[in-house]
Design brief:
Length: about 210
């Protein structure tokens, strides 16, 4: 009996992985309709990556008519099944009011889960939410820590943020040398505002 149950579990796992792989191949071939079908099947078996792909296809209107409610549905399933990118997408939807009503509390919830599970890009808007104090207590220290974390992974906007925080002493002790380091980095990463910030504050760095 135990062997039969184990065999069933392994078989389901194989089919789940197989549906994701088939969906991925079909996606490369631009057969969006059939790719979507396989991603949905795989998602139903709790494959978070497949849920992310299904939600993304519905969001773009590829393989089916664009449907933001289904996007939210599959992103929720993906987030519940360890897809950090799905959590980030949900955070963005609630932050911007895309297909759902604006709910900053939920945006914070999903961005936090995404950021903590390794999708560093989500730390940037989360930092902004804590800076603005939208549906959460304003926390400049937490905002600065999140921006620093994202900057270390070379997100130019995050480097701009932590650089300005150091220059103005927001959430961190004022330190113009550190401010220059991070603003320089944001500029080198292609952030035009970072470059302009350096020019404007040029006399302050001497």
């Amino acid at each position: 009996m135990k062997n039969a149950i184990l065999y069933l579990i392994l078989s389901l796992s194989f089919l789940n992985a197989n549906n994701f792989e088939i969906g991925s191949k079909l996606l490369k071939q631009k057969d969006f309709t059939n790719a979507l079908k396989h991603f949905v099947k795989s998602c139903e078996s709790k494959n978070g990556k497949s849920c992310l792909m299904a939600g993304s296809l519905y969001f773009q209107g590829l393989g089916a008519k664009k449907d933001l409610q289904k996007t939210a549905k599959f992103m929720t399933l993906g987030c519940d099944n360890d897809s950090a990118k799905s959590c980030a997408m949900l955070g963005r939807m609630f932050y911007k009011g895309v297909g759902v009503k604006v709910e900053y509390e939920k945006a914070v919830k999903y961005y936090t889960k995404s950021c903590e599970n390794g999708y560093i890009k989500a730390c940037v808007p989360l930092s902004s939410l804590y800076y603005k104090g939208l549906e959460v207590k304003r926390d400049l220290k937490k905002s600065a820590n999140l921006a620093l974390k994202a900057c270390k992974s070379d997100f130019d906007v995050a480097c701009l943020m932590i650089g300005s925080f150091y220059y103005e002493g927001k959430g961190v002790s004022k330190d113009e040398k550190k401010a220059k380091i991070f603003l320089d980095k944001s500029c080198k990463l292609g952030n035009k505002l970072g470059c302009e910030y350096i020019k404007k504050r040029k006399n302050g760095y001497r």
